[in-house]
Amino acid sequence: MQSLIKAVAKFRVDLTFLQCYDILKFASETAYKTYEDEGYILSKTWTVKEILDWTRDYFKGAGVERSRLEAEQLLAYTLDVDRIQLYMDPDRPLDENELNNFRPLVKKRKSGQPLQYITGQVSFMGLSLKVDERALIPRPETEEMTEEILDGFRDYEGVKVLDLGTGSGAIAIALARFLVEPNITAVDKSPEALELARENARRNDLEDEIEFRGSDWFSKVSGNYDVIVSNPPYVPSSKLKELKEEIKDHEPPEALDGGEEGTREIKNILDQVESHLSDSGTVFLEIGHDQGEEVKNYATAQSLSDVRLIEDSQGTERILCGSKGA
After folding, report:
1. In the chain, is it the N or the C terminus that has fewer CB atoms within a 10 Å radius of its CB?
2. Are residues 50 and 187 in the same domain?
3. What is the pLDDT of residue 326?
């Protein structure tokens, strides 16, 4: 930039003021864009508030939906503080080491990598879980299904639970924490996902409270359970390419692909679930937003009773619930 200014000054007799201004303006914008494209932040002293504002705008331009929230979460992770601390000390300057740690995280998020995979963690029902590309990122709908189970079984002791396709172990771990002395089995056909689930159980001091087992749904499961719960794949195969890049390019496709109509794995579970329910047992399945009536009718045809659909916080039917038939 300095050499360009000198060159413009040297030949200023041949340039009008506006031409000089346009050259310097173009050079400045190009330099800024180069930094931006590389995910870097221009060299200066940045306060917490300034870096949050800059990152919010940067994410917004990249199409990140919750740009402010994700900027806060990334910065809080970088500084190893709670998000509230960012607002308690907004004029705190960031040192060079903190900026150097923050820059590559911003670049990763802009490229489409999920925030949770960048930080390697997620909060589920108030529990800290490790997440990576071995399993799906737990989502609010799954928390709501877990809360439904707790609402119905919190006061019972020794509830026997089967978590099918446990993934990160989120559901099993939350139920182990909040139910009264439950007996929990968590299965998954993916050895990698099972190892992640075990890591999360250890992380929350619940490893001895959950039996983890390799099984493709019920293939290696015996006995009867008071609660059978699953968040199975339910995205139609033809819709996978329409998912957000951060989902289709990073989360395991086998945990998303529900076959041609999206209900293949839901129906596989319903075909066998009654024979694994105790006399008062209940099944809870997370389903796609437009699959309610189809899977409700299918569950009823499998002799389940009291089959109902439960809405999520957005008013969408996302949970199928049914009990063993009389």
Report:
1. C
2. no
3. 66
